[in-house]
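ugh ok fine here u go
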Amino acid sequence: MTQSNDVSLPDMTNDDVELLKKLEEENRRIEYDLKSPASAILKPIVNTHSPELHHKQGRKDSISSDLSNLTIDSDGNLDNEWVIWNKLVNNWSLYMKKKSIWIRDLIRSGVPVHFRPLLWQSLTKIDTTNTKEKYIELIKMSSPCEKVIQRDISRTYPEHEFFKEQHGLGQESLFNVIKAYSLYDREVGYCQGMSFVVGLLLMHMPEEEAFAVLVSIMQDYTMREMYKPDMYHLGLCMYQFECMIQEFLPDLYRHFQAEGLHTSMYASSWFLTLFTKQFSLNMVCRIMDLFLSEGMEMIFRISMGLLEIHQDELMLLSMEDMLKVTF
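structure:
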C-alpha cells in the first residue's frame, strides 16, 4: 500500500470539538440491545465487512496488553500512541485476528492523521496490485458519464487547496478516479455526491489507492446499492431511519410529521455523501474512520445523534426554517 504526502487539515474549531463530544456521548447512548425494535430494523443494513462481525469475540479483547504500555506525558498526550499505531498498521492481519474489538475501540478514540491512509486501506482490504492494473486500463477509456462528472468537479471541495484550481492536479485526479469507477461499475455509473467521497480519499492517498478504496466502499459497504439508478436501497435506509426516529425521538417525529418534513428531504445527503458535505474536514475524517471500521450502522448512529442533539431547537422551527438553518 502506498502512502501519499501528508495532508494539511485545519484544526478543529471549538464548535467542531463540542459537536464531536456530543455525538460521541449520544453514540454511547444509542447502543441498541437485541430486544429493541430498532435493532431489528438495523440488521438488514449492518455492514458484513465490519471487523466485529468477522471476528466475534468477547469484550475482553478491548483490554489489550498494548494499552497498558500507554503513558501520559506532561502535556496530556499519549507517549506511545505512535508506537501502538505503527505496530497496528504493520501487523494488521495479526491484530485483526486477535484484537478486532480493541482495534474498533482504538479507532473510536481517534486516529493520528499520518496513519489514516494506511488504516483506511487496511480496513477496506484492498488489493493494490490487481486494482492498479485495472485502474490504468480504465482511465485510458472514455465514459458516457464524463460530461456529468466534469460538471460536478468544480463543485467538489471548491475551497480546498488541492481542488480549487480549475483543471489542476486535484480536479484531474478527481475526474480520473470517478470516471474509472463509472466504467468499472456501469450499472451505477456516476451519482451526484460520489465526488465528495472520492475527494476525501484523494486528500489522503494517490489515485490508484483511492480507486481501490472506493471500489471496496461501493462493493463491501453497500454504497453501490445506495447509488443505483432506482435508489431503492437509499429509500430503504430512509424508511429505517424514520422508524428509529419514531421510536427513540417520538416528539421530534410527530413534529416532523406535522410540518411535512420527510426524512429524505434532509437525511438522503447524509447517507449518499457519508456526511462529507456537512462538517469540517477533521470531523469528516473521523466519521470516515468510524464508517470504514463499523459500517453503515455508524451513519445511522451519527444521524440519530445529530437529531437528538438539536431536538429542542428543531421543535421550535417550521419545515422551511429547519431546512435552512440545520440541514
